[in-house]
Design brief:
There is one protein chain. By secondary structure, this protein is mainly alpha-helical. The protein is built from 3 helices and no strands. It is elongated. The mean pLDDT is 82.
C-alpha cells in the first residue's frame, strides 16, 4: 500500500493524512472506473455497463 500511496503523491500531488484514505480512493478507482466505466477488450471495447445495456436490449427485442 505504501508504494501505491507514494505513486499517487508523485503523480497527483495528493497527500493523505491516514492510511484509510488512499485505500478508499484506490477501491473507488478500481470498482467505479476500472471495472464499470473503462472499455474492456473482451466486451468489444464496451464498458460493462454499456455491454449489459446492449445485451438486455437485444434480449427484449428477441422476446
Amino acid at each position: 500500500m505504501n508504494r501505491i500511496a507514494k505513486r499517487v503523491r508523485q503523480q497527483h500531488g495528493i497527500r493523505y493524512s491516514t492510511r484509510a484514505q488512499p485505500r478508499s480512493d484506490l477501491f473507488d478507482y478500481i470498482e467505479v472506473f476500472y471495472n464499470r466505466i473503462r472499455p474492456h477488450v473482451l466486451l468489444n471495447n464496451l464498458s460493462p455497463a454499456k455491454f449489459e445495456r446492449h445485451y438486455y436490449q437485444q434480449y427484449a427485442q428477441a422476446a
